[in-house]
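Troubleshooting log. The previous structure file for this entry was overwritten by mistake, so regenerating from the original sequence record. Sequence copied from the archived sheet and checked twice against the printout by T.R.
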Amino acid sequence: MERSEIPFTNDHFAAYCRKMVGHPYWMGTCGYKATKSLLKTKTNQYPQHYSQSRMKRYYQDIENKEIVCDCIGGIKGYAWTGGGDAIISALNNDLSISCVYASHGCPDYGANTMYRWAKKKGAAWGTIDSIPEIQGIALYKDGHTGYYVGNGLVVEWRSFSYGCVETELSKRPWTHWYAFPFLDYGEAQFSQQKEDRELGDRVLKKGCRGNDVKALQELLIHFG
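Regenerated output below.
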């Protein structure tokens, strides 16, 4: 069996992301069926995103029986539905989606917190200039997440206006990449991690190097 057919491999996740291109972005969602009750809940939760001027499009998504996500909701929806197959099967039809909250080792974190959590879990990561040619890794910039699908291409639930789109890695302002601890990357070889950690990312010990060590030294000098 090909890795792209095996759930929770990086190849399977990348294939899932490609299948979701063209579907809508709803802030605060993780692979949910677009319904009136969901729209009401999210409007109360994020009124600035669910403005009256956008309602016509939201109701069109409901009529089209869409599955909706935000940027980090792409990976959460995949993980919480056992590998995304239930989401693909329910696109634009009346099928329901079985979802187990925070399952398969994927926590309910936002874009920034998921990036910090993965690093603390020991996942491979680095600055964008060191990105390996490995599909299924996350792309990160402050407040936003995308997913690398290989050959210089990224799938991202970009915004309300764009929806889920395929973009070129080199044309978007990503700053870092990282691997998801709960995906199987097989024999993929990750490049050397960059030591650009922020203070608080890890417990500092003798011999540690990086930006966090420098920041701590500066604090000690300042308060010394």
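The chain is about 30% helix and 15% strand. Archived copy saved in two places this time.
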